[in-house]
Amino acid sequence: MLRWLVIGLGDIATKRVIPAILEEPRSQLAGIVTREAAKVDPYGVRAFASLEEALSHSRVDAVYIATPVFLHAPQTLAALEAGLHVLCEKPMAMNIAEARSMVEAAADHRRHLGVAYYRRAYPKVERAVELIKLGAIGQPIMAFAACHSQLPADPARRSWLLEPANAGGGPLYDIGSHRIDLLNHFFGEPKEVRACLSNAVHPITVEDSATLVIRYQKGLHAVVDARWNSRVVRDEFRVIGTDGEIDLSPLNAPDLKLPSRREMLPPHPNLHYPCIKNFSDALLDGAQLLSSGATAIWTDWVTENAVGDGKRRAIEPLLPLA
User: Fold this and answer.
1) What is the mean pLDDT of the chain?
2) Which of 6, 125, 241, 268 has the highest count of CB atoms within 10 angstroms of its CB?
3) What residues pair up with 239 in beta bridges, in sequence order?
4) % helix / strand / coil in the chain, to the nearest 5?
5) Distance between CA atoms of 297 and 63, rounded to whole angstroms?
């Protein structure tokens, strides 16, 4: 039996993570870290006011870190140093240096470090990977991902998402990270990043628009467009090859479209359940993690390079015309 400690009690934890732990047959919810102890009462487990208290007074095997991004690295390091396995929310860290420290600590302490990029477990994503390997669209040459919505937060609700010191960035870090991770899953390690970050509509302290071009091996280019300024919701993901296209749009729906047919492959009703199960299988049976620190660090590499490129291009002076 795998005993879990959940750190944080926001929407992700209450709506997905804790239900997934309770559903997974070899997992047990053992405690929750939160500043609002009364919210723990329905779960019948002990509430801890801090991670330090939980590490000192609880017997657990793994922790799920469901806190704002700026806490991911310090909480992961503390849990790993206490001998626990860690499954962390995305994005993995605020920057590549933090992400590297997390990967190194997991290796030093011989513990598993997973990151909750749960879309890797979508049946249609697994099918698309298979089809690409089989040559269903020839050689992949281009990919496109877009995720558009309105602002997901305001001063009274999830306000930390709009604070760069807490979230790292705006849609690039939040919804963009999932798309970048999937592109890395399809095409391997990214080689180069070019980006434009801006505030097209909202004068907030994080960007409301992020557009990236990522170069992968064999000259494949991928475009990611993530924004929090559109009243029209978009959730597009396409892989284009020399001989056709695989269209996974909308990414969160069951549709997988090929030139000659459509397949319907719905995800689990609780999108976090396959992630919790895979992590449990890795710890108890030696299964391979679908999303580990070693794979997730490349998403942090892309976001950090995108932020740097966006800032550099924003301040570059115009060259005089010849």
Assistant:
1) 95
2) 6
3) 143, 246
4) 40, 25, 35
5) 19
Secondary structure class of 26 (helix, strand, coil): coil
Say if residues 118 and 275 touch (Cβ distance below 8 Å).
yes
Residues 166-219 pLDDT 10s: 999 999 999 999 999 999 999 999 999 999 999 999 999 999 999 999 999 999
CATH topology of domain 121-269+302-313: Dihydrodipicolinate Reductase; domain 2 (3.30.360)
User: Can you tell me the distance from the alpha carbon of 121 to that of 274, in angstroms, rounded to the nearest whole number?
Assistant: 6
Q: Where are the domains of the chain?
A: 2-118+274-290, 121-269+302-313
Model pLDDT for residues 83-107, shown as the tens digit of each residue: 999 999 999 999 999 999 999 999 9
For tokens 């009690």, what's the residue? 9
CATH superfamily of domain region 2-118+274-290 = NAD(P)-binding Rossmann-like Domain (3.40.50.720)
